[in-house]
Design brief:
STAS_dom_sf; globular; 8-stranded mixed β-sheet; 8 strands; alpha/beta; Anti-sigma factor antagonist; STAS_dom; single chain
Length: 126
């Protein structure tokens, strides 16, 4: 765990196929996933999303995820419902093109915003 400026970086989970990193700031939590989200790794993926401290915005960076199975989609829906029940918003950042196709094919892009952060940290809908 380390502290970078006003951000706390910690709660890392890693196995051979999935790495999760959580960065906590005052008003947002960013979870960065790298690897594959499937039946073998979904427990670690879901655990990282559930363990993220409550903040107004939970940003999930999917740029390093090359595979998102149906179990991963289900975990995203559950996380979205949990974050929304706490008064927050789940936002997906920079999904890999393959993952973005899954999100669009399932219609999840209509439920959970997919955004691309600009240099000035504003979010632009994709």
């Amino acid at each position: 765990m380390s502290v970078a400026g006003d951000r706390f970086v910690g709660m890392r989970q890693r196995d051979d196929r999935l790495h999760m990193e959580i960065t906590v700031a005052d008003h947002e939590v960013e979870v960065r996933a790298t690897g594959e989200v499937d039946i073998a790794t979904v427990a670690a993926f879901r655990s990282a999303l559930w363990d993220a401290p409550p903040r107004p915005v939970l940003r999930l960076d999917l740029s390093g995820v090359g595979l998102l199975s149906a179990t991963g989609v289900r975990a995203l829906v559950a996380a979205h419902l949990r974050v929304r029940a706490r008064g927050g918003e789940l936002v997906l950042l920079r999904p890999d093109p393959v993952v973005e196709r899954v999100l669009r094919a399932t219609g999840l892009h209509r439920v959970i915003p997919i955004v691309d952060p600009c240099a000035d940290r504003e979010l632009v809908p994709c």
